[in-house]
């Protein structure tokens, strides 16, 4: 408080701490004067409580304005969480979440980077490419059980941490409404100081010096603009933390002020309107061929294979020979003397969903269609927002047909 007032004097601007600091100093020396004179008109206890409350409220505000979204750079080894360091080479496993940046040194893997790109389909990354913190390993290349990655950044040095740090810097700056209330508080204090000077002068003119000091001091303390100077940033900080718990990272607190003027809402598709993992939505395979499907997708670590295996579940698996996985194409094996292939069909079964076809001796016998299904609550949220008169849009790096399909499923009003 003393530092703020001194800095304001040096930079020639008015600090809202000036009146309350003036009242504290006057009350302190006034109490010392009465203590020396043997009077019982002392304010030490009141001053202590006042200073404690002011400093406590500012400490709480500073704590609320701090948040940390970064995670320690850990990896699981033998069932234990182990800290990793830059330069170390570690093995990646299926469905592992990365808390560090790394370069693939051995093998290839399918990576979910939807948090950065919005792309629903996992991306195949090969040796020499960088995987960023926040990514999830969804599968591996042909015949691989794991990939080896060299750690190049941990903690605050990761790309994700730097993005978060930029957000924190943006949020530390006062919002428009905070600056507005700060200006109002300064004007209020100028008025209060003027009134205080008149009150002091009036009683001093009448020779009532004790009344002049006590009434002026009371006026300065009672009219302290705490509601404007502290309550406003406190509410903004609480709102930011509340949004963070709901999964919303707000870049600029000014959004609370302009929120009432919003007419258009833009949704990110992957992870917001849809879940990030693939699910089977159409399974047209003869029942007596399901055990062949299990045999084909069981050894694979591809995200589509894992989704199909999740759909068919555990059960009998047909013995297979010469199992082979062709990255980007599919899998094949000899089962019961026949060549079975699970691969992309020659013609797309759907322009809006990834699909695979089952072939027996090059004859099509079944099809499987997959998608990122909408979140269970997505349709209800979209319906509620449309009733409130908002215009809804989707922003996505995915294919246009996929975006259109999701929009229809969750109830967006599409142009004719």
Question: Layout of SSEs?
Answer:
Elements: H1 2-10, H2 17-37, H3 44-64, E1 74-77, E2 80-83, E3 89-92, E4 100-106, E5 109-112, H4 114-117, E6 123-125, E7 130-131, E8 136-140, E9 147-154, H5 159-172, H6 176-205, H7 209-222, H8 226-245, H9 255-258, E10 264-268, E11 279-284, H10 290-297, H11 303-312, E12 320-326, E13 330-335, E14 338-343, E15 355-360, E16 363-371, H12 378-387, E17 391-395, H13 400-410
Parallel strand pairs: 10-17
Antiparallel strand pairs: 1-2, 3-9, 4-7, 4-9, 5-6, 5-8, 11-16, 12-13, 13-14, 14-15, 15-16
Describe the overall structure.
- The chain has 416 residues and is α+β, with helices and mostly antiparallel strands.
- It is 42% helix and 22% strand.
- The protein has a six-stranded antiparallel sheet with strand order 11-16-15-14-13-12, with helices on one face. It has a four-stranded antiparallel sheet with strand order 3-9-4-7, with no helix packed on it. It has a three-stranded antiparallel sheet with strand order 6-5-8, with no helix packed on it.
- Strand 1 and strand 2 form a beta hairpin.
- The protein is elongated and about 115 Å long.
- The two termini are 62 Å apart.
In short:
The protein has 416 residues and is an alpha+beta fold.
